[in-house]
Specification:
- The chain has six helices and 46 strands.
- By secondary structure, it is mainly beta.
- Strands 38, 41, 42, 44, 45 and 46 form a six-stranded antiparallel beta sheet that branches.
- The longest helix is centred in the first third of the chain and has 9 residues, at 3-11.
- The chain starts with a helix and ends with a strand.
Length: 649
């Protein structure tokens, strides 16, 4: 059966039950976003995307759209209701050039979102050295500082560059930058370390043995995939060159592509990270090419099995055939508690034997008029139902980029779609009916040592009706695009999140209890952080002290210690400062302000303290705690737990 006939039949299939309330409306004209990214004769067939972010920090999501060498780039500020105004000229970013992929993030930790925009030069010729770093000047304008920052070149020979992302790969608290290049001769894949002074250093060769030569890079992502806090580098790339790099924790990466079971995609282009199956681990979905009778891989769904290993499940999940896949996003579009997938696609020509020589190809183009794909999660992540027609997502042109963001502040995620030399489209999510509650979470970590701005790299967990769900907070690149950086939880009919927990990149844990639904919430960096230190007890075993609970005031919190000497006297020390005590091993202990004696471990060497946390404490107040336990087998007759830092909201 031909692909075109399959599409007709597929469109006539019955509507999935869980898609009945999910309807999108094309509001491109009404929102003032209509336009065509006229990329010009010197551009490539791979361009067409945009980036979302609250660039003026007024509480809504704006858009930056590179328009190509024929039309000035656009910076569209949102009025909060989904109406946009182009202020690019006033902000100093209305350039005429061949703009490509981009990353959005606060690279200098001043509280304002900046933009790294890759460019192939122009307007007339393809040249290197034209990438742009737009430094946000207080939400009123941009300064183009790429040359001064050292990131205007990725290739020294050719105009190249398609994907970029910010992330803190070396865990020093500022945002580093990964930029990709597709042309083999350009050698344009780069890792830039943030120097903390507004400049970056190219550390590609030092970070990865052998560098990234030979990788046809499109979409990079930085996120902790194995639970050790430091982010892995996931690099989606063309011609069987996708890579999975494990972070070694010392500023370097190890190529674990084969061992991880990834890199199976034949033509990796777009990618997205999400917990599709509800096991609280981030999975990796990669777009590629699917063709009738060919050997291309199609899209691949790498299910995280833990310990940097993955199983590929796209075929049984029903998300393998996405045509010529490009941009992709993952979010809970119908707010039913699981993560859905939307993929943009298209290609006007044939796939030739010369371009992909591993097997023969259909001499006729088979991707003409193919619509985008909307796969709604059936609940377990093991199967998805394709529902674009039922939901009114009609975008069947030569698609490229896609991004999700909440354009009108109503809690559900809307979609912006882009094409190569084609019209921009904005589809508003008009989800209706009961049982569509939600919680949208942003993070704030301004000027927090060791924590990247906006909490990028954090993991957010929401417990609803006894079930815990997970959403990552990262730069969220899509193919040549960048999405909203929130953690969204569809709550179904639940009116309250029983507990919201944030695991920050520095190990701090924030807890918020009984959070009402249907609100956008910003969580500031605070909570419980495990610190090193302590003195080992009998047998060299270190008592372990932890804590949990909402520090907003008035809620029950707990201190819990394990691995101490059984049935022994214990004392809790609390201080407003921490001091380094060399004769105790150079550890952090409280500069004591409060002493709570008379405690005792149980027969298993554990201790549990429960208390109502006081209200009215000053914001961002640090407290340090440590427990000392009598232990006749310890060197000094006592053992000390690790120190614990608490910071109020």
């Amino acid at each position: 059966m031909s692909r075109s006939l399959l599409l007709v039949v597929f469109t006539l299939l019955p509507v999935a039950v869980h898609a009945q309330d999910l309807v999108f409306s094309d509001v491109t004209l009404a929102s003032n976003l209509a336009g065509t990214q006229a990329l010009g004769p010197a551009s490539t067939d791979f361009m067409g995307g945009a980036g979302a972010g609250d660039f003026d920090r007024d509480g809504d999501q704006d858009l930056f759209i590179p328009m190509g060498p024929m039309t000035a780039d656009r910076l569209m500020l949102n009025d909060g209701a989904g109406q946009f105004t182009d202020v690019a000229a006033a902000w100093g970013c209305a350039a005429l050039h061949m703009g490509s992929g981009m990353a959005v993030g606060d690279y200098d930790d001043d509280g304002w979102l900046d933009i790294y925009l890759m460019s192939h030069g122009g307007p007339a010729a393809n040249k290197p050295g034209f990438h742009r770093l737009y430094h946000n000047l207080g939400g009123a304008s941009f300064a183009q500082v790429a040359t001064a920052a050292g990131v205007h070149f990725t290739s020294l020979t050719l105009g190249d560059g398609y994907g970029a992302c910010f992330g803190d790969y070396d865990m020093d608290g500022d945002l580093d930058l990964v930029a990709t290049g597709w042309l083999p001769a350009a050698a344009g894949n780069r890792i830039f370390r943030n120097n903390g002074n507004g400049t970056f250093s190219n550390v590609t060769s030092a970070a990865i043995s052998g560098g990234l030569t030979g990788v046809g890079g499109f979409t990079p992502q930085l996120f902790d995939m194995d639970g050790d806090l430091d982010p892995e580098l996931l690099l989606t790339a063309d011609y069987h060159t996708s890579r999975y790099f494990v972070n070694n924790g010392d500023g370097t990466f190890t190529n674990a592509t084969v061992a991880s079971g990834t890199g199976l995609d034949s033509n990796g282009m777009g990618a997205t990270l999400a917990d599709f199956d509800g096991d609280l681990l981030p999975d990796w979905y990669v777009t590629s090419i699917w063709e009738d009778g060919g050997c291309s891989s199609g899209n691949l769904l790498y299910r995280n099995e833990g310990a940097n290993t993955f199983s590929e499940t796209s075929v049984p999940a029903g998300v393998n055939d996405g045509g010529w896949g490009w941009g992709v996003v993952s979010t809970d579009l119908d707010l039913d508690g699981d993560v859905d997938i939307v993929e943009n696609n298209g290609w006007l020509a044939t796939l030739t034997d010369a371009a992909e020589p591993l097997c023969p190809h259909d001499p006729l183009p088979q991707w003409l008029g193919e619509p985008l794909y909307l796969w709604l999660n059936d609940g377990s992540g093991t199967h998805f139902t394709e529902s674009h027609a039922a939901a009114g997502l009609d975008y069947a042109i030569d698609g490229r980029g896609i991004l999700n963001f909440d354009v009108d502040g109503d809690g559900d995620q809307d979609l912006a779609l882009f094409s190569n030399d084609g019209p921009i489209a904005l589809f508003r999510n008009d989800l209706s009916g009961p049982g569509h509650n939600w919680l949208r979470v942003f993070l704030s970590s301004l000027h927090k040592p060791g924590v990247p701005p906006d909490g990028l790299g954090s993991k957010v967990y929401a417990t609803v009706s006894g079930v815990t769900r997970f959403a990552p907070v990262l730069a969220k690149p899509s193919y040549v695009s960048s999405c909203e950086q929130s953690a969204l939880f569809g709550l179904g009919s639940a009116a309250t999140v029983e507990q919201l927990r944030v695991e920050w990149p520095d190990g701090t844990l924030s807890y918020l209890d009984q959070v009402p639904a249907n609100q956008t919430l910003t969580v500031a960096h605070h909570g419980w952080k495990w610190l090193a230190g302590g003195l080992a007890g009998t047998g060299g075993i270190q008592p372990q002290l932890g804590g949990s609970g909402d520090l907003s005031g008035g809620d029950l919190v707990s201190l819990h210690m394990s691995d101490a000497h059984p049935a022994s006297a214990a004392v809790l020390f609390v201080g407003l400062l921490a001091v380094d005590v060399p004769f105790k091993g150079g550890i952090l202990v409280p500069a004591v302000n409060v002493v709570l004696p008379g405690l005792s471990t149980d027969g298993a060497g554990s201790l549990l303290l429960l208390a109502l946390w006081p209200a009215g404490l000053p914001p961002q107040l640090p407290l340090f705690m440590q427990v000392w336990v009598a232990d006749p087998g310890a060197v000094h007759g006592v053992a000390g737990s690790n120190a614990l830092q608490l910071t109020t909201p």
